[in-house]
Amino acid sequence: MLMAMVSDLRVIMVKLADRLHNMKTLDHHPDPAKRERIALETLNIYAPIADRLGIFEFKEALETECFRILYPDDYTRITTELASLKEEQDFFIHKAREVIREVISDSVPIIDISYRIKAPFSIHRKLSRKEYSYTHTGDLYDLFAIRIITDDIRHC
Fold it and tell me: Parallel, antiparallel, or unpaired for β 110-117 and 144-150?
C-alpha cells in the first residue's frame, strides 16, 4: 500500500532510515507505552516493507531494535550468548573457508565466500517456537551460514 502511494522508492528508503534512527534513540522517550507502540508498529509495518523490498540489512536492524525494546531480557540473554560464541564462530568461518577452497576444484572460480550470523530476533523467534526444544542460542544448528558466489549458475 505504501509503495502504491509513493512513485519514488527513494522516499521509502528515507522513511526506513528515519525509522531506524528513531528506533535507535527510542530509549530516551519518557513513556514506556509509547515506546512499545512504536516498536510494535515498526515490527509489523516497516520491517516487512524492508523485507519485501529485499533490503535485509534494514529489516534485520529494525527487528533487532524492536526486539531490544519489546523483550529486553531476552535481547540481553541472546546477545550475550552470541558474544560468547564469537570464538567458535571465528573458528567455524576460518575452517569452512579452508575446506571450501580445498574441496572445490580450480575449474570452479569462487568470486566470494561470505557468511552471516543469525539475527537476535530471528533466534528469539526460533527459540520461542513450541516445536523446537532449544533453550540456548548455541543449540541452534543454523546459527552461522556460508554463501559461496561463483561466476556461473552451473558451478553452483
Answer: antiparallel
